[in-house]
Design brief:
Distance between the termini: 22 Å
CATH topology of one domain: FAD/NAD(P)-binding domain
Radius of gyration: 21 Å
Strand content: 15-25%
Bound molecules: flavin-adenine dinucleotide
Shape: globular
Number of strands: 18
CATH class of one domain: Alpha Beta
Structural class: alpha/beta
Number of helices: 12
CATH superfamily of one domain: FAD/NAD(P)-binding domain
Length: 433
């Protein structure tokens, strides 16, 4: 089966750019053209209009995880038990929320400023469960979310099924004011298509390492060429080790998702002609599901710690899992109704916090989106560009203070530990896939 991302197919591709050949010189180099790298490029271009800025990607730009995600713009996370108001973790939750809210504002502003058409809906979304036992401490969660500025209310039973068009979910917290949904491939394609003239993009250009030359110059080596720059921003997320940075405290995960054909008029009517929605699970390995504005259903219900890509036959197996999840929510859907199935990579950390750092003189890097890089990547791109330009601001300082991804054991201990943890989480999420 083909690994084809439905969001990318529906968004269409931008015209292809050159592959890097020979030696290029630039003032600034950005490695990785996803949301983070492209937002860094926009910011650098605004701050340094006379500079030559180069951005490279090893595949088509804007077609990695940034196009393949579920399109949740995360302004408010579902609070964990120790983050509830009155608990020691609440202070950290407040700071993290102020960063996420700034990040979601940044998405809204970028979309408006650049005129990006990406089905952006500031509708909020649901933290919903099939097993009500998986949504505990509801009153404390509502109080916590409201204390940090969210709009939040609890739904269950018929009022909930009327909103979602399925009785699968039995309890939910709807959370708005910063939480939004968008079509991810259209968003990141919009960031790409509006790059200013002083930004040059090379595609299908795999950077295999960074090398320090004399006089403060850094060379990034690709397969058929190289780029020499004084400042390098590494925006590789799950692929950060490819730049030679292997102590970021982050690890890669591979997720898979499917998107159905649009529901027919009769099917749509049968589910109550509901408004588009998005559901996040309260369990890390539970399903993420959306009903899109064009009446398709998207499901992402596999996530695994992997250091090599899923094969086609492995992806076919994951698709069976998507079918099960779809049928639990909408029994009239079957495998034939799936139009696209794909995978994507993200980077995670033990603490849930990112790696955001000046690595060396002239080298800056970020990784560890932990599944909320649509908003955070948008903000981090700008902040990394500002850090590299010597600027400072309260939000940059706040991000740098929180950027503590935590210690990871060396491999193979990491592999074993991560695999075991994922198995436990999979069992805990059994009712929620
Ligand atoms: C299935 C899935 C669902 C998700 N859902 C959500 C969601 O709903 N909301 C949310 O906020 N986040 C979500 N995420 C996470 C989100 O997609 C990421 O946080 C975000 O895309 C990170 O953007 P980025 O630019 O940092 O990284 P990427 O988009 O991964 O960009 C990195 C780029 O670097 C390139 N690259 C890699 N190696 C090299 C190299 N050697 N040389 C040159 N270029 C290289 C890659 O090709 C890629 O384009 C999801 C992720 C996945 C996979």
């Amino acid at each position: 089966m083909t690994n084809e991302c439905g969001w990318i197919a529906l968004a269409g591709s931008s015209p292809a750019r050159d592959v890097l050949k020979g030696t290029q010189k630039a003032d600034w180099l950005i490695v990785g053209a996803g949301i983070t790298g492209l937002c860094a490029a926009h910011t650098l271009a605004e701050m340094h209009p006379q500079a030559r800025i180069v951005i490279v990607d090893r595949q088509r730009a804007a077609q990695g995880a940034s196009a393949r995600n579920s399109g949740f713009v995360v302004g408010h996370e579902h609070p964990a038990k120790d983050e509830l108001i009155g608990n020691p973790g609440f202070a950290g939750f407040e700071v993290d929320t102020s960063i996420s809210r700034a990040a979601s504002d940044e998405v809204r502003q970028r979309i408006a400023r650049l005129g990006i058409e990406c089905e952006f809906r500031e509708s909020g979304y649901y933290f919903a469960v099939n097993d009500p036992g998986k949504l505990t401490d509801v009153a404390a969660k509502l109080a916590t979310l409201r204390a940090v500025g969210a709009f939040a209310h609890f739904l269950e039973g018929e009022p909930l099924s009327k909103k979602l068009g399925t009785a699968h979910y039995r309890a939910a917290i709807w959370c708005g004011n910063g939480n939004a949904l968008l079509q991810p491939a259209k968003y990141v394609k919009g960031l790409l298509d509006t790059l200013p003239a002083n930004v040059t993009l090379f595609e299908d250009t795999d950077i295999t390492g960074l090398e320090r030359l004399g006089k403060g110059c850094i060379r990034a080596n690709g397969t058929d060429g190289s780029i020499e720059a004084r400042q390098v921003l590494v925006c590789l997320n799950a692929f950060i080790p490819r730049s030679g940075i292997d102590d970021s405290g982050t690890f890669p995960m591979e997720l898979s998702a499917s998107l159905t054909r649009p529901l027919s008029d009769a099917e749509f009517k049968s589910i109550g002609a509901v408004e588009p929605w998005g559901v996040l699970s309260t369990r890390p390995l539970g399903a993420t599901v959306r009903l899109t504005p064009d009446r398709r259903v998207m499901i992402r219900n596999t996530a695994e710690y992997r250091s090599r890509d899923l094969s086609d036959s492995e992806l076919l197996h994951r698709r069976k899992h998507h079918v099960l999840g779809l049928q639990r929510r909408f029994p009239f859907l079957s495998e034939q109704d799936i139009q696209y199935t794909w995978t994507g990579h993200l980077s995670a950390s033990r603490t849930g916090q990112p790696y955001f750092s000046k690595v060396d003189e002239g080298v800056f890097a970020v990784a560890g989106c932990n599944g909320s890089g649509v908003a955070r990547g948008t903000l981090w791109g700008r902040l990394l560009a500002e850090l590299a330009s010597g600027a400072s601001s309260p939000i940059l300082e706040s991000v740098m203070r929180r950027a503590q991804p935590g210690w990871l054991p060396p491999r193979p201990l990491l592999d074993i530990g991560a695999m075991l943890r994922m198995r436990v989480e999979a069992v805990r999420a059994k009712t929620e896939i």
